[in-house]
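ok so I'm stuck.
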Amino acid sequence: MKPVAFPLIFVFSLFITFFSCSNKSSKSRKPVCTIMVSPQKSNYFFGDKISVNVKTKLKDGNIESVKLYMNSQLLKESKELDFTVSVIELKLLGNNSLTVEAVKTDGQKNSRSQVISVFSNEPAKKFTYQVIKNYPHTKEHYTQGLEFYNNALYEGTGEYGFSGIFKKRYETGEINKTIKLEDKYFGEGITILKDKIYQLTYKNKTGFVYLLADFALVDTFTFRPAEGWGLTNDGTNLIMSDGTHLLTWIDPNYFSVVKTLQVANNRGLMTNLNELEYVNGTIYANVYTTDIIVQIDPETGKVISEINLTGILDMYKKKEDKIDYLNGIAFNEKTRNLFVTGKYWPKMFEIKLIPSK
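replied:
not stuck anymore, here's the structure
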């Protein structure tokens, strides 16, 4: 007898397998979205108006919703695969994020993001300086923070093993009170708010709170930015820089983030923001590694003015001096002038701002 049963069974099995596979539903595909901004530009300016077109492609199934967000704020939700949101006014400086999230009725979803950069629509005013008077400054101090309070000068210093806070008689440089940080901490910016001194550290993400009267340590706190640089306050909240183009407002009681602000001029983001000083509703900031101080609008982040202090130390430094960068801004309520100094500088200067021609 011929062995015919095996081939027949094999063919039948193949047929069943093919039939089963051909009727098995294919795997659901994710939706794919594209974002088109109009007009298309490499950079945008504060107050510009844009339109955003969203197109969604489906390989299968039906769309449940397509949501368009700008900086986490919902602009539009739709079931349309092609829609446009028009006349979006750009009111936030810095990097603005557009995000589309598409969800199908079967739960499959996908998202896509695009970042556009927004700069100031106003050129900063230019200033130079006139030295009113110079004062002695301790050449051993790596200045990180500078602030007047009741006509006394308070200075925060950095470097491991040398960081601390010093209360000084600014006219003579005489030190009246001192507190040092442990060697493991690199001190950064300081500010005084409601009879307390707040101090940042560089990479420890730790801040310290002292009583102004006797420098007694009363609290510590952690902060969100990766690094601590400059510190000031607006009478309500602490304001800190972290070496980027960001400023962060911090609640002085709970140390939670109140808001963040991106800083830009009409040419780009203003990075390396360092020591800060809040003066008459605006923020002054040293731009690290430069001789420039910028004045910032705390509502928009626009750079209002740029002060060029090039050459201010030239006639006072000696060849053997260990001179580092300009860093230190303090406003004296009594004289109504700015005082500036730098890391390891032998002098502090009282200056008057002069418009540049």
